[in-house]
Write a structure and sequence with these properties.
Strand order of the largest sheet: 3-2-1-4-9-6-11-10
Oligomer: single chain
Radius of gyration: 20 Å
Distance between the termini: 25 Å
Number of helices: 11
């Protein structure tokens, strides 16, 4: 166990630049000696991300081309009916498409182009799967422990003390009454899965052989996982197989072992509400006193929220600087 400052990993494409800029600013205010490893999964190297990184000595820009991507055959074969699985869904799609063509009616949430919609879903699912190989690569670039943060996640207080807990890998678990294990009713799925348990927006790994073993196991499970939330459902599946009671409490040590492992891997599940807080109101209020990382849901990504986010983060940065 160590209290040494960790390094950080982000994985994003150019569309998330504004959120990453805010997130990295408060992170480096809290951890000025840390390095950020920014993995760019844009279709081609993003000049915006590259230029921003070049101006900050703490940010290491890494382009992660599709030739290096961990791919899933299941994702490549995803079709529209997986998301719009019944007749009423199909009618809704046809109705909205007709209203757009005849009357120009269009809401932000409407799907009117099947091909465009499914290509987007495939790409985002493939991007999420890259968390595993990028984590493995990142561990080879530093001797420090690593914390992964989604671009829309913001450190609220210093995070290095979490590594005083005893673990190789620390993941975050939703509120216990929010956990869902079974057949996901919202998509075309026949197999029972722990489809709502781990939230993969914050992941902590100690820089040791056990974590590397775990990542390789995670990569194998991603290829076997038939669910849109591919990387976090894969994580949940690994833990559920190791311990069917894994999601009944927080901070229980779950030991993962495979015949190919040289050593067992100890995993703990931290509270999302504290270490990966997605329980945020539309006015961006949350339990600040208990939160280590605040994580915005996609519904709070719109341009109407960007000013509020910047304002809230800037106020927090001012408080941090005052206390340093």
């Amino acid at each position: 166990m160590t209290n040494k400052t960790p390094d950080f990993l982000y994985l994003l494409d150019e569309k998330y630049f504004k959120l990453f800029k805010i997130s990295s600013t408060i992170l480096l205010t809290l951890h000025p000696s840390s390095q950020i490893f920014l993995y760019d999964v844009s279709p081609k190297p993003s000049l915006l991300l590259k230029d921003f990184s070049s101006k900050n000595k703490n940010i290491n820009y890494i382009f992660w081309p599709e030739s290096l991507w961990l791919k899933s055959e299941w994702v490549d074969n995803l079709c529209f009916s997986y998301f719009y699985k019944n007749f009423s869904d199909q009618l809704k799609y046809l109705s909205r498409k007709t209203r757009f063509r005849l009357f120009g009616q269009l809401k932000k949430t409407w799907i009117i182009d099947k091909k465009k919609f499914i290509n987007y879903k495939k790409r985002i699912c493939h991007i999420w799967a890259q968390k595993a190989p990028c984590f493995l690569d990142c561990l080879s670039r530093t001797d420090r422990n690593i914390i992964f943060l989604d671009a829309d996640a913001f450190a609220w207080r210093q995070l290095h003390s979490i590594f005083l807990k005893d673990f190789d890998v620390a993941l975050t678990l939703r509120k216990l009454n929010d956990v869902r294990i079974g057949v996901d009713p919202y998509v075309k799925c026949k197999k029972a899965l722990p489809y709502l348990a781990i939230n993969a927006g914050v992941i902590l790994m100690r820089n040791n052989p056990a974590s590397r073993q775990f990542i390789k196991c995670w990569m194998e499970q991603i290829k076997l996982t038939h669910h849109f939330l591919i990387e976090q459902t894969a994580l949940s599946s690994i833990l559920f197989k190791a311990d069917p009671d894994a999601f009944k409490t927080f901070e229980k040590t779950i030991t993962i072992y495979r015949n190919s492992f040289e050593t067992p891997v100890n995993v703990i599940l931290l509270e999302c509400e504290k270490y990966n807080n997605t329980y945020i109101d539309r006015d961006l209020s949350f339990h600040e006193e208990e939160t280590y990382v605040v994580h915005l849901k996609k519904s709070l990504h719109g341009p109407e929220f960007l000013h509020l986010i910047e304002e809230k983060i800037n106020k927090r940065i001012a408080c941090i600087r005052k206390d340093l």
